[in-house]
Amino acid sequence: MIQSLAPYAVHVEHSRGRRYPEPPHPYRNDFQRDRDRVIHSRAFRRLEAKTQVFTGRFSDHFRNRLTHTLEVAQISRTIAAQLRLNVDLVETLALVHDIGHPPFGHAGEKTLDTAMRRHGLFFDHNLHALRIVEDFEQRYAAFRGLNLTFEVREGIIKHSRDYDPAQFPELSEYWLDKRPPLEAQLIDATDELAYNTADLDDGYEAHLLTLEQITENVPVFARFFAEVEKLYPAAPKKLQFNEVLRRILDRWVGDLIQNTQAQIDTAFNTNNDERSPGRSRPGDDEESNTISARHSPVTLDDICAHPKRLVGLSPEVEAERAETKEFLHRNLYYSPALQPEKEDAERIIAQLFDLWMKRPEKLPASYQEKTKSESEPRARVVCDYIAGMTDTYIYEQYEKYCGP
To answer: Where are the alpha helices (H) located in 10-159, listed in sequence order?
Structure first.
């Protein structure tokens, strides 16, 4: 049985539409069309050759930006269905959430931002993703960009942070003074769950994290590992490891579902009756306990007007996630074994950025034209060019212009 959407979900028939109106499609709704446009975009394909934590030079088996994105989409769809949110919108936002990242992962992003700040500007991967879907992708004769719905564009901007309306007046159409819909809020949470568990896996596979390290420093892992050892004492350690990660992710996802629903109910003082068709209504003897409960449905406007985001883990499970993330920062992300890769990223991006700032004639013709038009600062044009590159392509450019 197909479950109906919650009243506070985003209903596609109420979408604010596209920047350039288009006729409806005969068998796909607007959010499904947006999902397909993202998947068929060049920026999405390039994610396959962009670093998540490990560059492709380590192994073909480690996550890249594309495989991470697919994992986020899978987890997000599962949670959205349980919360009766719009799964099509959630899937689209998950698939598009990382297309603004530059090569070399977070090291590349940090270096590019540092280079931009020397020119009084900055780099933000969410804002860059919006530029990609609004302008850089060119697939249609009728308009530039992908012409995505307002709800997808809003989610690109607002899924992971709040922007100050006074500092970003150019984004005023996206209601910066309001919270994003739950569909967008969900992406930031699932992104965290996905990469925390995946990075433990890749770090262990890379032999940069040992089983002893993890069990000693990540209590939730240690607890499940003891359980798995009893259940599968003869299994290889890697399979035991996999079983533990599966249990952790299942625990965190289940908690996110339950705690988010609880936070919605608490925030709006609901009694849960409308969201649970199989649940019996309170009897007369319980009437006094529900007299103050809200009986009108919680709406999307209620969610967006609420002072804080409502998607999140319970305090206990959030502490587990934070412990895991802190462990990964100390033992994996800043591991000496990864330092040469970070130094490569910093050197390559910094040198190429400086080169093209001084010698814009070495840019491709389309970017040269942009620097000549002076419609945007040269630094922004150079930044856009670098941010769109894959790891492979930026290495090629470095060898071409800065190699021996």
So the answer is: 30-39, 42-46, 65-82, 87-96, 105-117, 125-131, 150-158
CA distance 79 to 291: 31
pLDDT at residue number 56: 54
pLDDT exceeding 70 applies to what percent of the chain? 91
CB proximity list for 219: less than 8 A, separation 6 or greater: 320, 323
H runs (alpha helix) in 120-181:
125-131, 150-158
Instruction: For residues 242 and 194, give the distance between their C-alpha atoms in angstroms, rounded to a whole number.
Output: 14
Q: The pTM is what?
A: 0.92
Tokens of 177: 């003074």
Torsion angle of the four alpha carbons 89, 90, 94, 99, in this order, in degrees rounded to the nearest 10: 20
- 112, 57 in Cβ contact below 8 A? no
Please name the helix (run of DSSP H) or strand (run of DSSP E) that holds residue 367, with its range, or none: helix 365-373
**Rounded to whole angstroms, how far apart are CA atoms 222 and 194?**
19
Cβ 60 vs Cβ 45: under 8 Å: no
The ranges assigned to domains in the chain are 29-272+297-338, 339-402
Residue 386 to residue 233: CA distance in whole angstroms: 50
Reported as a single tens digit per residue, the pLDDT across 134-192 is 999 999 999 999 999 999 999 999 999 999 999 999 999 999 999 999 999 999 999 99
What CATH number should be reported for the domain whose range is 29-272+297-338? 1.10.3210.10
Record the tokens describing residue 361, joined without a space. Answer: 């004639």
